[in-house]
Amino acid sequence: MGIAKVVDNVSTIHGNRQGLSLGRLLSVWVSYILSEADHRMSEVETWAAERMECLSALLPEPVCEKDFTDDRLADALRWLSDDGRWAEIERQLGMRLMRVYDLERSPVRLDSTTVAVYHDTEGNTLFRHGHSKDHRSDLAQFKVMLATLDPQGMPLATLIVAGHRADDGLYIPAIRRARPVVGQGGRLYVGDAKMGALETRAFVQASKDYYLTPLALIGQVPELLQELLQPVWKKEQPVQRIYAPDGQHLDQEGKPKVLALAYETSRTQEAHVEGRSLSWRERILVVYSPTVARQARRGLAKRLKRAERALLALTPPRGR
User: Is the dihedral of CA 58, 61, 64, 69 positive or negative?
Assistant: First the structure.
């Protein structure tokens, strides 16, 4: 990956600094975290001391256990906390990996998650209470938005924001961070329904990139869905059967299994991007998945049974 080289290219450490370079220090620290599954700084010095012969053989510069004191690691963390430096490291690492693995046309996937922490929220701008994807609303959290390159899931950009922030406003900043690495024009961005906001779609379209996202069933979308399904129900709109490639999914008779029924249409969209009007034709894929439909029916049946049991529990038995 060239982590050490990239970090040393970006760093402008004081000339009086002695010992292992910042890039080499961080490379060894990452090795410790991955091999020991431990992020504590206080344990790295002891770990390195026990492996000094190995580290001396692997590193192209002199190394000693005092290179890994918690003070030096804390200095490295402070240096990495600068947003500008972090963005430049991401850019250089991403461009290097794209050249190595030939990922020039791979789609970019955008997704967020929350990380719960045992931390006081008072006076803290990062650790806040919000909607928890871990179902731990009692804990403070921060939110991470990732832009990754398919199919390897290689991180391109990482946004860390306060735990109470909504996802909707994080897609455009993440795309902006990813573009210096992947370029602009012809790139496909893939996200969940929260990426389907008109502002986000228009931002991607304005740069001649592409987007793929489900439309959330809010606003006028339910009416649009009914309008799109009417010709299918009336058998006026033919649908295409979609099968898994290379016979990966077969039914009980050994025939290719239908993964979905779908058809394509389009509509005109209009928006304002950075003060200018934008109009474009948007493709709409209307897709029915038999597997998803079966799961939805089973889920509904289970919920109805739970509701029935709860209602019966409120009613006294007959004869009492």
Answer: negative
Q: Which residues of 201-219 are buried (b: 16+ CB within 10 A; e: fewer)?
A: bbbbbebebebebeeeeee
Tell me the whole-structure pTM to 2 decimals: 0.75
3-state helix/strand/coil string of 229-289: HHHHHCCCCCCEEEECHHHCCECCCCCECEEEEEEEEEEEEEEEECCEEEEEEEEEEEEEC
Backbone angles phi, psi at 261, to 5 degrees: -115, 135
What digits encode the pLDDT tens for the residues 200-245? 999 999 999 999 999 999 999 999 999 999 999 999 999 999 987 7
3-state secondary structure of 11: coil
Q: Is 238 exposed, middle or buried (0-12, 13-18, 19+ CB in 10 A)?
A: exposed
DSSP annotation of 156: E
Cis peptide preceding 107, ω within 30 of 0: no
| Lookup: tokens for 61 | 């510069």
Give the domain ranges of the chain: 3-81, 103-212, 221-297
Strand order, beta sheet including 154-162: 154-162, 140-149, 108-117, 188-190, 210-212
- C-alpha to C-alpha distance for 293 and 125, rounded to whole angstroms: 42
The H-assigned helical ranges of the chain are 3-10, 22-36, 44-49, 52-58, 70-80, 83-101, 171-182, 198-206, 221-233, 290-314
CATH of domain 103-212: 3.90.350.10
Distance CA 271, CA 198 (A): 7
How many Cβ atoms from other residues are within 10 Å of residue 221's Cβ? 14
CB count within 10 Å of CB 64 equals 13
